Amino acid sequence: MAITIIGTGSYVPDKVMTNFDLEKMVKTNDEWIRTRTGIVERRIAAPDQQVSDLGVEAALKALKMGDTAAADIDAIIFASTSEEYTFPATACAIQHKLCNTKAFCFDVQAACTGFIFSLETARCYMTANPQLKKVLLIAAEKMSSVVDWSDRDTCVLFGDAASAMLLANVDSVEQDCFAGTKLGSNGAFLEKLLIPAGGSGLPATHQTVDQHMHFLKMDGPAIFRLAVSSMVECSRQLMHETGISASEIDWMVAHQANSRIITATAERLEIPEQKVFMNVQSYGNTCAATIGLALDEMYHQGLLKKNQLLLLTAVGGGLTWGSIFMRWPLD
User: Fold this and answer.
1) 262 falls in which pLDDT band (50, 70, 90)?
2) Active-site residues: which are they?
3) What is the pLDDT of residue 170?
4) Which one is the CATH code of 178-327: 3.40.47.10, 3.60.15.10, 1.10.1670.10, 3.90.930.12?
5) Do the domains 178-327 and 2-170 match in fold?
6) What are φ and ψ of residue 88, in 5° steps?
């Protein structure tokens, strides 16, 4: 028995917001955004779409691909930076919308590294308890609800999306699709990227609302440096621990935050450009959803082949970071 992927799914809202649309909202321009981020457009959820609605759309596609009824899911793990509630877990809202009453559900909060942390969490649960036959991972973001649309340094970066992956413990499979994982965190950089208010540390007041403290705040230059160094060092450590070299990697699928960050990370790891997948130009930074969205898109474009070695790597607020080696299991 081993853990494998049996389904993937993704969803992006219908509304497209281009850089030219943003020119009408804040002092910026298409050329500035493209050259510094690589982003051309992003998707924006409708006002009545909840982050759980986005997650359900992606989940249904993964379930269909995996030929699995929602009622048969044993666990639901949800990752997000823009959860629907402080509590309860948005995973419970998704469970209800999927009409599942069997699964245990919880959220993982690791910001943009949430998908990586969720994969490793699921792997550990499924290894420890083989009776967990099917675990559904969902990463969804409605970043449009937590960015300050008057702040040109951040509002140009983010978009809304969801991705999902269905993992299964399968008797006929001999080897896990996971070939190694390395995770890390450093709370010393907590204030470099965060939403300051709204929690118990700084509850909502007229002052916090007036000062836009319920929106995302970021030290862009610091996060750029930390993002590259964290993903590079984490991936190098993983290579050392597994004995896998950069030359063996078929695809690097990094967190889609910024094209310059992705390119700089690949260059330092000596991974050639043709092995680096990038779709940040179409969706912007969809935080926890980016890697799952990329994998689903790659699979349906025919880019992923069975047994290819993938390096997944991400960095997020906290600071959190992680890298995973995965052998792609699907034809």
Assistant:
1) very high
2) 112, 255, 285
3) 93
4) 3.40.47.10
5) yes
6) -80, 180
Mean pLDDT for 35-48 is: 97
Q: Which residues contact 208 (CB under 8 A, 6 or more apart)?
A: 196, 197, 198, 202, 214
Query: Going by C-beta distance under 8 Å and a sequence separation of 6 or more, which residues neighbour residue 233?
Result: none
Contact between residue 135 and residue 75 where contact means Cβ atoms under 8 Å apart: yes
Domain 2-170 fold:
Peroxisomal Thiolase; Chain A, domain 1 (3.40.47)
Q: What is the pLDDT of residues 185-217, one digit of tens each?
A: 999 999 999 999 999 999 999 999 999 999 999
Number of other residues whose CB lies within 10 A of the CB of residue 130: 12
CA distance 310 to 175: 16
Which residue in 228, 287, 234 sits closest to 256, CA to CA? 287
Average pLDDT over residues 40-51: 98
Classify burial at 279, counting beta carbons within 10 Å of its beta carbon; exposed 0-12, middle 13-18, buried 19 or more.
Answer: middle
DSSP class per residue in 39-94: --EEEE--TT--HHHHHHHHHHHHHHHTT--GGG--EEEEE-SS-S-SSS-HHHHH
Read off the pLDDT of residues 74-98 as tens digits, 9 standing for 90 and up: 999 999 999 999 999 999 999 999 9
Q: Does the pLDDT of residue 173 top 90, yes or no?
A: no
Question: Where does 176-289 have alpha helices with state H?
Answer: 206-210, 220-242, 259-269, 280-283
Q: Where are the domains positioned within the chain?
A: 2-170, 178-327
pLDDT band at 263 (very low <50, low <70, confident <90, very high): very high
Burial annotation 60-88 (CB, 10 A radius, 16+ → b, else e): bbbbebbebebeebbbbbbbbbbbbeeee
